Amino acid sequence: MSDRKPLILITNDDGYQAKGIAELINAMKGLGELVVFAPDSHRSGMSSAITTAHPLRARIYHKEENLTAYMCNGTPVDCVKLALNEFLERKPDLLVSGVNHGSNAGISVLYSGTVAAALEGCVSNIPSIAFSLCDFTPDADFTYTARIAEKLARKVLSDGLPKGICLNVNVPVGEVKGIRMTTQTQGKWVNEYQRSQDGIGRDVFWMTGNFENWEEDNVNNDEWALANGYAAVVPVKIDMTAHDLIPELKEWEL
Amino acid sequence: MSDRKPLILITNDDGYQAKGIAELINAMKGLGELVVFAPDSHRSGMSSAITTAHPLRARIYHKEENLTAYMCNGTPVDCVKLALNEFLERKPDLLVSGVNHGSNAGISVLYSGTVAAALEGCVSNIPSIAFSLCDFTPDADFTYTARIAEKLARKVLSDGLPKGICLNVNVPVGEVKGIRMTTQTQGKWVNEYQRSQDGIGRDVFWMTGNFENWEEDNVNNDEWALANGYAAVVPVKIDMTAHDLIPELKEWEL
To answer: What pairing do the DSSP bridges indicate for beta strands A33-39 and A67-72?
Structure first.
């Protein structure tokens, strides 16, 4: 296999036309053979959602040397699963997801389609990294993010990642001071809806909100790093078991 | 507050008309004041997906003493968020989700809307439990599951759960030998698509598949418990950080 270039699977949740995935594709071009398998439209906030009630479709929208790009009518996790099960001829050496337009730090790891795609790679034992820039505008500047993505991709291609763990990388706007290895900031979104009315006066609710940080003084988490000009890397596990609690639960009288 | 009954928020991912949620409502009736806030149709496999691109709506479909039931056009997590942000007059003392028609053991914790609803309760510091029966038929027999749900709900209402941890409870078909506290079985779904054709001969892919268990010999995980006639309780964390890996990541030269 040493004569073959590494195979890199690329996806996102903003859809195949987003600037973020174009920049990520460019950043990966020197590293191997690329297959893009991305949603055919915006699929933000889809978490690890999978499509069971209707069929998936995929088609090639671009092809050049060392790059084949598909669009698919599924979620980010559908894209990863369908690519691995039905479209790729060999197992990828790396999966990269993003670059997301907007932060996926803190509790957003639960809701993000970008991170979910990396978790899905991880489920299939593929070293996987999710990238997000803390700027949700369509024409965001990905200059520093692309450099960081290339650097981390090279490292992970060379050294791998432990089984069951992927990386969630968030990058602040503007010049980046460096890269910090951090924890997922504990906190939650608050004031999550804006009440409005439809055309005939019925209440409707639009998602909005702001993040309430429960660890303002913690200098080791991703929100602190981002607020202080550092890119934040959180290792994220697919085993969600709270192992420490099991001995206590076993004492329960039921 | 001691003169008020406990407030219990109930949701699911199979939709408000599913037998599983009706049985869960019945099981909770002796325990407090109930508010149901459930999807208006099937939302299986939605994980922690949230709706940002279109507005949410909710309306009461049933009301009786100590029970108000809403249906909502969102995902399970939307239902929990909208109920907590806009519809409930006080914070629930307990959130229960399900009973799901079908297993949510092992890696399904990542994809399940039922479990995601409990995780969302957990994000808001509400003791939360997801219940699933390993039978996906619409008329499944929830007799034992209802008893287990009542027992666990009473325990959690009385003693609470640690911050950031909810319970994922799966129940086998038939008579249940007891309740085991377990870990999330490591493994993955394989053979995930059935290729078919649409009416004009284009390839489409339907999700299917079977679970590949990587821990066949582990007697402490949820798949073992279920296969041996026990209900399986997994404590699930919202902090997905792989804390143990951070020291090693800090040594990376980038």
So the answer is: parallel
Residue B39, SS3 per DSSP: strand
Burial class (CB in 10 A: 0-12, 13-18, 19+), A33: middle
| pLDDT tens-digit profile, chain B (254 residues) | 457 899 999 999 999 999 999 999 999 999 999 999 999 999 999 999 999 999 999 999 999 999 999 999 999 999 999 999 999 999 999 999 999 999 999 999 999 999 999 999 999 999 999 999 999 999 999 999 999 999 999 999 999 999 999 999 999 999 999 999 999 999 999 999 999 999 999 999 999 999 999 999 999 999 999 999 999 999 999 999 999 999 999 999 88
Structure tokens at A200: 């005939």
Task: Return the residue in B166, B249, B250 with the most chain A beta carbons within 10 A, the one to mutate for interface testing.
Answer: B249
Neighbours of A4 (CB within 10 A): 10
Q: How far B168 CA sits from the closest chain A CA (Å)? A: 10
Degrees, nearest 5: CA angle A139-A140-A144: 140
- A&B contacts, CB < 8 Å: 198
CB interface of B with A, residues 23-52, below 8 Å? 42, 44-52
Which secondary-structure segment (H or E) carries B42?
Answer: none
**Cα–Cα dist B251/A181, whole Å:** 10
Distance separating alpha carbons of residues A86 and A55, to the nearest angstrom: 14
Are residues B119 and B236 in contact, defined by beta-carbon separation less than 8 angstroms?
Answer: yes
Task: Please enumerate, by residue number, every residue of B annotated as part of a binding site.
Answer: 13-14, 44, 100
Nearest to A252 among B58, B110, B155 (CB): B155
ipTM: 0.95
Alpha-carbon A142 to chain mean position: 15
Q: Which of A62, A5, A6 is nearest to A37 (CA)?
A: A62
What tokens appear for A170 in the block?
């968030």
Which among B53, B181, B186 is the nearest to A249, CB-wise?
Answer: B181
Tell me the one-letter amino acid at A146: A
CB spacing of B239 vs A184 below 8 angstroms: yes
Cα A103 to Cα A90: distance, rounded to the nearest angstrom: 32
Residue A215 buriedness (CB in 10 A; 0-12 / 13-18 / 19+): middle
Residue with tokens 């996806």: A11
SS3 of A106-154: HHHHHCCHHHHHHHHHHHCCCCEEEEEECCCCCCCCCHHHHHHHHHHHH
List beta partners, residue A125: none
User: Which residues from chain A sit within 8 angstroms of residue B179, using beta carbons?
Assistant: 254
Instruction: Please tell me the total number of residues recorded for chain B in this structure.
Output: 254
In chain B, the domains with their CATH numbers are 7-185+217-250 (3.40.1210.10)
Are the beta carbons of A183 and B242 closer than 8 angstroms?
no
